[in-house]
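Retro notes, structure queue

What went well: the backlog is down to a handful. What didn't: a couple of records were mislabeled last round, so from now on we paste the full input next to the output in the thread. Example, using Enoyl-[acyl-carrier-protein] reductase [NADH] from Almyronema epifaneia S1:
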Amino acid sequence: MINLTAKNALVTGIANNRSIAWGIAQQLSSAGANLGVTYLPDERGKMEKKVAELTAPLQPSLFLPCNVQDDEQIQATFDAIKENWGRLDVLVHCLAFANRDDLTGDFSATSREGFRTALEISAYSLVQLAHYAKPLMTEGGSIVTLTYLGGVRVVPNYNVMGIAKAALEMNVRYLASELGPDNIRVNGISAGPIRTLASSAVGGILDMIHHVEAVAPLRRTVTQLEVGNTAAFLCSELSSGITGQIIYVDSGYEIMGM
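Corresponding output:
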């Protein structure tokens, strides 16, 4: 059994009960981790209320607003971790965004601002969060992010998000190299297509899921909890020799040629 008792784990990116981040948070909690959860603040407080109600059964000891486009909020998040926990053991990065207009049509029509936004939120944010997490991971730690096959192969309508995921995967390798001497491991999970709030912006997501169900060796796609299981493994001592890797959790679809 995976044991994360006495581990402090920060989970970002929970939006609703379909979020992969939600599946990860559940499995980390089941393994005994002390959870902290961040949410994307909005003017009406709708996201705060939604995420608070969803995560309440897990009893997170920290519940913090964190917009990764706001340096002050990032700083405040890690200041709260230092003040309340003293150290951080696990960081789960489940953040991605691209303008809907940049996820359809010709890739060459991607706007400058759309390209910048997708790369900043979906890829650079991992670098930012790792920078702030590093001095708090005084006893080593594990950083896990989420990627997708569209970062290494062309997927219809994935467009600029594919570029962002490619950058994210390279971030994993550079961060693993930098942080390894401090016993901090950095890995990514490449999950198969799942119906989430983020994936709903990708045109033809249901067709993608049905295709995976027909072609993948297991003849199905995966669930949020299956991705959560792999994340819990990567956050535990059972994976102590693994870093800089992209682990595919996609029912084997990645191995198929046709």
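Agreed that this is the format going forward. Reviewer comment attached to the example: The helical segments are 20-30, 46-55, 71-84, 112-133, 159-179, 205-215, 224-234.
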